[in-house]
Write a structure and sequence with these properties.
It is built from 4 helices and 14 strands. By secondary structure, it is mainly beta. The N and C termini lie far apart (about 80 Å).
């Protein structure tokens, strides 16, 4: 079965992706044969809304160039009530989705389990587990929002609430993100700062490269390694730079002989 093509509607620094509800629940086969109370079908006339930018994505978190797309529509002031049914639209339920720098640089698939309230035909409220799939795209930044429409709690006389996941960045032990660039601090002893050295530089993907330095390293010295930063969402296949900041370790104490040798070598 072929699916409609995906259209790119733009991408700004602040992104929000919305997916309308369908039958995409990840369940085991037992769920199809277990006796469960009949649920009330909930109409959903609300359109996908974004703030600042929009992009096609399906209900399982698939972004551009993926199947089963659902168009996003820009709307700075979403209506909280339907003009036809006057059913209330509850505010969305927001949850943080923590991602590592590696996941935000190379992309990944994350599955999140949620528990929500649903209504049965008898008017009872039961709890139901859902597993939502979110395709994290390379180049996403913290603050990016992914919304699943109608996947929140159900209540009488109202539409089901939306569930919005807000991307957050997990603190990295080596790198600090600055836009599309990464920063790395490297400590070297004073003697290497004065005489030059070869410094092994770790990269985000786990590799290591040797950086040759044949000049004196002073306070504030840095080197830039192009193409080893974060993925650039606006330019597919391109990456930012890695800024290597050098921190010089001075000796904590010197003997009289070492002091005299330093003076004779360096002068006053």
């Amino acid at each position: 079965m072929q699916h409609p093509p995906i259209h790119n509607h733009g991408f700004n620094e602040r992104h929000e992706f919305r997916f309308r509800r369908h039958c995409f629940k990840n369940r085991s086969m037992d769920a199809f044969f277990a006796p469960v109370p009949l649920r009330i079908p909930r109409p959903n006339s609300f359109k996908n809304k974004t703030n600042g930018s929009s992009e096609n994505a399906d209900r399982n978190g698939f972004g551009e160039n993926q199947s089963r797309s659902s168009p996003c529509k820009q709307n700075d002031k979403p209506n909280m009530y339907s003009n036809l049914t006057l059913m209330a639209k509850p505010p969305p339920i927001e949850r943080n989705l923590e991602c590592t720098l590696e996941e935000l640089c190379y992309g990944c698939m994350k599955k999140v389990k949620i528990t929500r309230d649903v209504l049965t035909l008898s008017g009872q409220t039961i709890q139901e587990d859902e597993v939502l799939s979110i395709k994290v795209q390379a180049g996403w930044t913290k603050g990016t929002k992914v919304t699943f429409e109608g996947m929140g709690n159900e209540s009488p006389g109202a539409y089901a609430a939306d569930v919005t996941f807000v991307i957050t960045e997990k603190c990295h032990s080596l790198f600090r993100r600055d836009g599309d660039d990464l920063e790395l601090s490297v400590e070297i002893p004073l003697v290497k700062a004065l005489t030059g050295c070869s410094v092994p530089i770790p990269l985000l993907g786990g590799e290591t490269m040797n950086l040759e330095i044949d000049e004196i390293i002073g306070p504030g010295y840095q080197r830039v390694i192009k193409g080893q930063g974060m993925a650039n969402k606006k330019h597919e296949g391109s990456r930012g730079n890695l800024k290597v900041l050098f921190v010089i370790n001075f000796p904590k104490e010197l003997t009289c002989e070492q002091r005299a040798a330093a003076v004779s070598l360096l002068g006053d």
